[in-house]
Specification:
- It contains 15 helices and 23 strands.
- It is α+β, with helices and mostly antiparallel strands.
- The protein folds into four domains: 155 residues, Methyltransferase, Cobalt-precorrin-4 Transmethylase, Domain 2 (2-Layer Sandwich), CATH 3.30.950; 62 residues, Arc Repressor Mutant, subunit A (Orthogonal Bundle), CATH 1.10.10; 167 residues, Heat Shock Protein 90 (2-Layer Sandwich), CATH 3.30.565.60; 75 residues, Orthogonal Bundle (Arc Repressor Mutant, subunit A).
- The protein has a six-stranded mixed β-sheet with strand order 15-14-18-19-21-20, covered by helices on one side.
């Protein structure tokens, strides 16, 4: 997990760390002691201690004398180090649970070769190394289980600190904040005038918890501020993997990639550009209306927009190494976000959404990027019905949620699963609107002529046998039958 930073920035950071009067619970100095097992235990201890101390990062520096903090240089080279033939970084990452962000930075300071290990704070669970949790007690590394009061305090912090409130960049000057955060977009999206002064801008960002004061009198940029309004997500190391990836494939498989792009901006200031890019890749159809040829999108733009916003909002940011993704095929578009759903995928239409990231969702609602609570998936299903597309599919995999929009295809190319899903979601949409599915409503949904209503009856029977729907009134005559989802 090595990354490049400017030597001047890193040298300045090392000098600031050396000014600490003593090693702290989130800072350790070494000269050449780089035994891999020891490094792994320090990764656990320093990450957990950073969370306990309210720090975004902890640090381990090689090439500094740990008493007077004088620079002495080091011979340690993390890039060359191996453990049983395996690269040190890979071995460390494989031995950590859960995975955290850490970066080795070789840096030269005043002519001395040093190595700075930057360690992201623990989140949601204490960090283990080889199934053992460590903590710093003063300047000593200890097993966490031997200090139950620290363990209890750590769990309290995990329970109380949402992702959005964590720090993405710490101790930034006012000018740094304005360079990193797209504040003009923030005011524009909220429809507010830009303040006349720098302080007015900072005060507004602070009011919405996009930044907060740091202990040093500077500013911390929160995850909320960075993920929504970063000018460049790459400037925030712990968030760069959370940018939306858009991949276009040739055909209906993942064998051949035509185009791939990763979003650069924050979710809010980059959303319209993201949607425009996706729509530019989506296929379109030509239709003739009143003798005029007209190009229409293959997929409802509102449905695409809503599902992309959902993927951004409902993802589990604590799953490292993955982010939201849009995959475009000739016959479908798949929108995936990391994290298991908090609501059963079969109940997306009727259940009020539960969000892991309520502050993020709230601000995106305020700037008009996502729909009001509870209406989004209803609109997606309605749009697919209006366009007479196959019903969308919502599914959960090992650690992600996927929504699939299908391109138009005739009924004779829809299999039983497609028909049952279409029937079920039609019944759901009717039910949440205070109505009932009937043979007539499903026939109109599928664009089937009245003479072929027996075909619709067969589709309804399939859904009944599958358990996806049920009769509203079992005593009703055949012609008067109404249907509701299985859960109604």
């Amino acid at each position: 997990m090595t990354t490049d930073r400017s030597n001047d920035y890193l040298a300045g950071l090392v000098r600031e760390l050396c000014k600490q009067p003593a090693e702290t619970e989130w800072l350790e100095f070494k000269q050449n002691n780089a035994e891999p097992q020891e490094i792994g235990e320090y990764l656990s201890a320093l990450a957990n201690s950073a969370a306990l101390c309210g720090k975004a990062f902890a640090y381990l520096v090689w090439g500094v004398e740990d008493g007077a903090h004088t620079l002495v240089g080091t011979t340690f080279s993390p890039q060359a180090a191996k453990v049983g033939g395996e690269e040190l970084e890979n071995w460390l990452l494989r031995s950590l649970s859960p995975k955290i962000h850490f970066h080795f930075h070789p840096v030269e300071v005043d002519g001395y070769p040093l190595v700075l290990l930057e360690i992201g704070r623990a989140f949601r669970h204490p960090v283990q190394f080889q199934n053992q949790e460590f903590i710093r007690v003063g300047s000593y590394k200890k097993k966490l289980k031997d200090f139950p009061e620290k363990e209890r305090a750590l769990w309290r912090i995990f329970d109380q600190t949402p992702f959005e409130a964590m720090v993405a960049a710490s101790d930034q000057t006012s000018d740094d904040v304005l360079k990193l955060v797209d504040y003009p977009a923030y005011f524009e999206l909220l429809g507010r005038p830009l303040p006349d002064s720098k302080q007015g801008i900072l005060d507004a960002l602070k009011m919405d918890d996009l930044i907060c004061p740091s202990e040093s009198g500077k500013w911390n940029i929160t995850n909320l501020g960075a993920i929504l309004f970063a000018k460049r997500l790459d400037d925030f190391r712990s968030l760069k993997r959370k940018a939306m990836r858009v991949i276009q494939y040739r055909g209906s498989s993942r064998v051949e990639t035509i185009k791939e792009q990763v979003g650069a901006k924050g979710y809010a200031n980059g959303f319209e550009g993201l949607i425009g890019f996706i729509n530019g890749l989506l296929p379109s159809n030509e239709v003739i209306e009143q003798a005029l040829r007209k190009t229409v999108p293959m997929y409802p733009e509102l449905a695409v927009r809503e599902l992309v916003a959902n993927a951004l909002i409902h993802q589990d940011f604590f799953i490292t190494g993955s982010g939201p993704m849009v995959e475009i095929f000739d016959d479908r578009i798949e929108i995936t976000n990391p994290g298991l759903p908090l609501v059963d995928t079969q109940r997306f239409v009727d259940s009020p959404p539960k969000s892991r990231n309520e502050a993020l969702a709230s601000l995106l609602r305020r700037v008009g990027i996502c729909e009001e609570r509870g209406s989004g998936i209803d609109k997606v299903v309605f749009q697919t019905e209006y366009y007479q597309l196959p019903a969308p599919k919502f599914e959960s995999t090992v650690d992600s949620v996927r929504a699939v929009l299908f391109a138009h295809r005739p009924l004779n190319r829809m299999d039983k699963a497609d028909r049952v899903r279409t029937c079920y979601l039609h019944a759901c949409l009717k039910y949440v609107n205070g109505e009932y599915m009937t043979n007539t409503s499903l026939r109109e949904r599928l664009g089937i002529e009245p003479a072929n209503k027996s075909m619709v009856s067969r589709y309804i029977r399939e859904a009944l046998e599958d358990g996806a729907i049920k009769l509203h009134d079992e005593a009703a005559a055949t012609k008067l039958r109404k249907y509701v989802p299985f859960w109604a």
